[in-house]
């Protein structure tokens, strides 16, 4: 009889340890899910910060383009002024004939270059805006992934808790059957 009692106590202790291990695993799964969500949230915040930096870079690109465009237009006006002064020094009527054509060509080519500067700045700004949008989307995805990972951790915890309960119930049933002889044929 003592041997049977010892065996039953050992089986109950084993079931208790097994259930305890399953509960610990469940709590660890919950903590892991929460940690993964926290890490994903940090990734999302970093992506948002980088998106804000990219938007600032886009604004800077436009502002630099405007300054460069204005500076270049000033240079073109200076070049045209130098052409007029040179032609006038040679006693050429600067308001007539080929002198006007030379000035018009310089103004036309200068305007094309100024517009190219503006266009390049706009393209650079567009690239930064696309990057900002991409980073924001990545941040959203990271946050959603974190939520799903946290839910998966909770689901693993629930499964572990149910497993612990099943171990306790199953072992309890086996112990009762062993003690009282349920399920044995005589």
Textual characterization of the structure:
The protein is an all-alpha fold and about 190 residues long. The chain has one domain (about 1-180). The chain contains 2 helices and no strands. Helix 1 (about 1-90) runs antiparallel to helix 2 (about 100-180). It is rod-shaped, with a radius of gyration of 40 Å. The model has no long low-confidence stretch (mean pLDDT about 85).
Which key phrases capture this entry?
single chain, 186 residues
Element pattern in H and E: HH
Which structural class do the helices and strands define? Answer: mainly alpha
Strand content: under 5%
Q: Could you report the average pLDDT, rounded to the nearest whole number?
A: 87
Distance between the termini: 19 Å
Note the main sheet.
Answer: none
Percentage of residues in helical conformation = over 70%
The domain count comes to: 1
Give the helices and strands, then pairings.
Layout lengths: L1 H88 L8 H83 L6
Helix pairs in contact: 1-2
């Amino acid at each position: 009889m003592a041997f049977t009692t010892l065996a039953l106590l050992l089986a109950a202790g084993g079931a208790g340890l097994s259930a305890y291990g399953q509960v610990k695993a469940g709590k660890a799964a919950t903590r892991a899910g929460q940690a993964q969500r926290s890490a994903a949230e940090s990734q999302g915040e970093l992506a948002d910060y980088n998106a804000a930096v990219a938007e600032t870079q886009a604004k800077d690109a436009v502002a630099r383009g405007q300054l460069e465009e204005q500076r270049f237009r000033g240079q073109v006006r200076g070049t045209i002024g130098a052409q007029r002064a040179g032609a006038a020094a040679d006693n050429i009527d600067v308001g007539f004939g080929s002198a006007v054509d030379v000035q018009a060509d310089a103004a036309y080519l200068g305007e094309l270059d100024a517009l190219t500067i503006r266009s390049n700045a706009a393209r650079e700004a567009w690239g930064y805006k696309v990057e900002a949008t991409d980073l924001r989307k990545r941040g959203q995805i990271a946050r959603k992934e974190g939520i799903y990972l946290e839910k998966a951790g909770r689901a693993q915890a629930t499964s572990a808790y149910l497993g612990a309960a099943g171990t306790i119930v199953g072992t309890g049933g086996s112990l009762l059957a062993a003690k009282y002889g349920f399920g044995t044929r005589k």
